[in-house]
Structures are given as C-alpha cells and as structure tokens.
C-alpha cells in the first residue's frame, strides 16, 4: 500500500517533518517496493491559512491510504478522514524508520487530531 | 464627523480618551462606537441603559448535495480553502469563509445555498448624559472580527458626531475601524513599544488618507532635575512627531490617581479637575482641526451626509 509521510527532505533518509499542513514535502512510499514519489508542498508553506486542508487534498490525490506525521490539526484530520485515509501522529526520526515501524505494525492510528487548529 | 481613537500598541489609553472626550463634549447627539469587539469596555465607563442585543451572523456556503455535480468551480475560486473537493466529495470549512459569496456565484448548478455563522452580538444603549453607545461582542471562538466591526460601524449616523474606539494593532480589525474616519487620534506612550506601534499606525493612516494627531499618555512631564540620564523627560514620541510633522494634541501625565479612578469605572473628567482641563483642551484642539478639515474638503462632508 501507499503511505504518505511528511518529510523535510526528498529521500528515505530525510527527517520526518513534524508539521503536516506546512511540511516541506510528502514522500509517497510504496511499502511493498519501497519506491518513493516526492510531492512538493511548497505552495502550502506560503499559504496564510488552509494549509492543512490543501495538504490533505494533495495526499488524497496521491492515492496514499495512510499518513505518518508529527502533528495533525482538526481541519486536515477531517479532510483525511473524508478521503478514507488513516493517520498516525506523534512520529519522529527518519522517513525510513517510520516506514519500518509501520510495516511491523508498531504504529497506532489516531482517532482524533492531536493538535488544535491555528487561528484563521 | 467621525473621530477614531487608535494606538497601535494596546493599553495606551484609547478607551480612556474616547469615553472622557465623549463625556466632556458639549454637543448633543453624540454616538460612541466601541469597535474593540474582542474585548469592548467603553460600556463600563459610559454606563448605557436599556441595552438591546442583536445577534450578528455572516454568510457561509451550504452545499445541496443533490444538485452538486462535483465540478470543483467553487473550490477553484475560493482563496481561503473554505470549500474543497476531497476524494469525490465536497467539504466546507465555515470558519475559513470570508463570506464573499463567490462560490454561489460560480456554481453552474445553483447548488450553494446561504447558511450562517454567528459572529457575535451588536449592543446598543443610551446613558444618562444622552450619549448613545453602540458596540460589538465577538463570539468566543470566532476568529474574524472585521465583519462584526463593519456591522457596528453601519450604525454611524452621519448627522451626528461619532467617537470610535479602535482595537489595538494595525491589522484588519484596526483598518476596518479606521476606514472612512474624518480624523484619527493616536494615543501613545513614551516607550519603545509605544513608538514602534505608533509609527506602524501612522503608516496605515497615510494609506487610508486620514488626518492624524497624537496624544501622549503617561507622559513624563517632569522638569529635568539633574544630569542623570534616567531622570530626563522621555521625548521619543515628541521627536518622532516633529520628524513626521504630526501635531501633538495633548500630553496626559502619569498619574496613579487616574489609574485608581479608571479602575473603578469612573470618568477622569468627573473625578479629577486637572484631567478635565486637559481633556477640554484636547477637545478644543480636535474641534479646530475638524473645522480646518471641513473647510479644506467640504465635498467629503456633503458626501458623508448624503450616504
């Protein structure tokens, strides 16, 4: 399956970006082949607001079925839920480490956003 | 005439200046507007009676899912991600919506109906001096105050004289409040923060083309008593005003007694004769500035009366 990880860089060795909406990139990783597709998120970095919504849309369009990130707010969480994408929050380290943990079923899916929304 | 009291920095004395000016004004038919809708407090001092409250809301889109064909035109138009097409479904985020109605206009199916988001309340009352106070109270949890401020300002009667208490800062709420003012009084204090935020507000007012005067609150009016630097009067605002060519309308000295009176919800012009004198001087200066503005620009005045 495809998993989207918020990442500060573009390779599996990059550090996971703790922010979802304003992550530098999303790495869409195929957990079977470990093939990586990079989705830049720079357009959202500069958005005054609504970055979580747009990032959620980017991930939904990538075909990913799960997201691994640090923090996910209520609006992004809603979007991902609407798209049927499961979310893992509170993860640190490299993208590769996150994927390995995910593959070994060590990560737990969130039932709710783990941070509050930003002021409009 | 609309005179708005602004500052940039918070806590410099905007409300104190507003309510005391209104109380000392000899003209009848005074309206006071408290546009600091996030924490209005003019009513504490002006004590309006028979207060009426009205709920104020703003338009948000409600999508008729039967009619929506998921074309995504609304999403393309919306600059605030308040409406989005996600995984073949249309989602709305009412708290992001700026009520431009653009989504409803571009929808080819007519699938977008008008819903509402409550912004807060509009309150009105009149006190025993005959001052009419109109103010807004933003709903707790609401992040956008300009639409509510707009509603408060719609009550401005151009036939009457209005004092408008602005929110602090120089972002949308302050700009919405200052817009269309005939004159702005900028209340500052002689501190680096006071000066920094005053200068920002002056830049905003240049863009809005509103004439300005400065009031220095908690001014150090003491005579220099020694050569020790710390005991010299703090003149940073005076220097700035001179450089910018902005008139200093009045200086209110630092006064513990004034703080005590204000903390009881009383008016300085009622309790302190020396303050009453300073407010009277300030009022007279504002009136002469307004007379000059009227003379210079009678057209604007006529336009204001008509609208």
UniProtKB/TrEMBL annotation, chain A:
<feature type="domain" description="Dinitrogenase iron-molybdenum cofactor biosynthesis">
    <location>
        <begin position="13"/>
        <end position="104"/>
    </location>
</feature>
<dbReference type="Pfam" id="PF02579">
    <property type="entry name" value="Nitro_FeMo-Co"/>
</dbReference>
<dbReference type="InterPro" id="IPR003731">
    <property type="entry name" value="Di-Nase_FeMo-co_biosynth"/>
</dbReference>
<protein>
    <recommendedName>
        <fullName>Dinitrogenase iron-molybdenum cofactor biosynthesis domain-containing protein</fullName>
    </recommendedName>
</protein>
<dbReference type="InterPro" id="IPR036105">
    <property type="entry name" value="DiNase_FeMo-co_biosyn_sf"/>
</dbReference>
<dbReference type="InterPro" id="IPR033913">
    <property type="entry name" value="MTH1175_dom"/>
</dbReference>
Automatic annotation (TrEMBL), chain B:
<dbReference type="Pfam" id="PF00037">
    <property type="entry name" value="Fer4"/>
</dbReference>
<dbReference type="InterPro" id="IPR017900">
    <property type="entry name" value="4Fe4S_Fe_S_CS"/>
</dbReference>
<protein>
    <submittedName>
        <fullName>MinD2</fullName>
    </submittedName>
</protein>
<keyword id="KW-0479">Metal-binding</keyword>
<dbReference type="GO" id="GO:0051536">
    <property type="term" value="F:iron-sulfur cluster binding"/>
</dbReference>
<feature type="domain" description="4Fe-4S ferredoxin-type">
    <location>
        <begin position="59"/>
        <end position="88"/>
    </location>
</feature>
<dbReference type="InterPro" id="IPR017896">
    <property type="entry name" value="4Fe4S_Fe-S-bd"/>
</dbReference>
<dbReference type="GO" id="GO:0046872">
    <property type="term" value="F:metal ion binding"/>
</dbReference>
<feature type="domain" description="4Fe-4S ferredoxin-type">
    <location>
        <begin position="89"/>
        <end position="117"/>
    </location>
</feature>
<dbReference type="InterPro" id="IPR027417">
    <property type="entry name" value="P-loop_NTPase"/>
</dbReference>
<dbReference type="InterPro" id="IPR002586">
    <property type="entry name" value="CobQ/CobB/MinD/ParA_Nub-bd_dom"/>
</dbReference>
<keyword id="KW-0408">Iron</keyword>
<dbReference type="Pfam" id="PF01656">
    <property type="entry name" value="CbiA"/>
</dbReference>
<keyword id="KW-0411">Iron-sulfur</keyword>
